[in-house]
Amino acid sequence: ERIKELGGEPTSDLADKVHARENTIDKLQQEITSYLVELSRVTMSQQEATLVPALIHAVNDAERIGDHSENLIELGYLRRSGDRRMTEEAMHDVRALHEILNDQFAAVYRTFEEIGTDSLNHTLAIEKRITEFLRTASEAHVRRLEHGQCDVQAGVIFLDFLAHLERVGDHLVNIAERAGAIGQVTAD
User: Fold this and answer.
1) How far apart are CA 105 and CA 120, in angstroms?
2) How many CA atoms are closer than 13 Å to the CA of 68, on its beta-carbon side?
3) Strand, helix or coil at 148?
4) At residue 20, does pLDDT exceed 70?
5) Where are the alpha helices (DSSP H) in 82-151?
6) What confidence tens digit (pLDDT) does each residue in 34-45 have?
7) Burial group, residue 130, by CB count within 10 angstroms (0-12, 13-18, 19+)
8) Nearest one of 176, 184, 167, 170 to 120, comparing CA atoms
């Protein structure tokens, strides 16, 4: 929700919140996974048994999103510690990708609320938007580097930043796909 701040000037307050949230997510991942493993030892139907790995994978994807958030904080500190300024175009790209990811988060939430393929298809369409956006943003960035319009080190940080955001999008798609499968099983 605060990706723009992560790419700009992450505050110590934001960093503390991200680290605390990541610690909570790590603990929840362990507890939920332990519960699901215990649950898998109970006799259940084949259809119910397919839920356990899907849920474990979804929990792992959620935890990895937390990891990427911490990495984004670290990139923000790295950029700031070297007083490396991103170009206005780069910051515009970060804000634009932030908006696309917000759309994807909302689409993923809908996959849990709606049974069917519409919300999953919407999430997959947004993934295509992200892929296309990242291609054009990377190409524009290389042009800026070639023309000496940006600091090389800031450019490396910018590309790392985009890579982490892309992984967040990938994990969201994984969660949406599993949510769709879980919804189909639980609806029957």
Assistant:
1) 12
2) 22
3) coil
4) yes
5) 88-113, 118-146
6) 999 998 888 888
7) buried
8) 176
Provide the token pair at 109. 């939430």
For 97-130, the pLDDT digits (tens) are: 888 988 998 888 888 787 666 878 888 899 999 9
**Rg value, the chain, Cα:** 19
Query: pLDDT digits over 36-83, tens only?
Result: 999 888 888 888 888 889 899 999 999 999 999 889 888 888 887 777
97 contacts: CB under 8 Å, gap ≥ 6: 3, 130, 133, 134, 137, 162, 165
Return d(Cα 36, Cα 41) in angstroms, integer. 9
Q: Which amino acid is at 31?
A: E
The residue whose two tokens read 């809908």 is 110
Cα separation, 179 vs 20, whole angstroms: 26
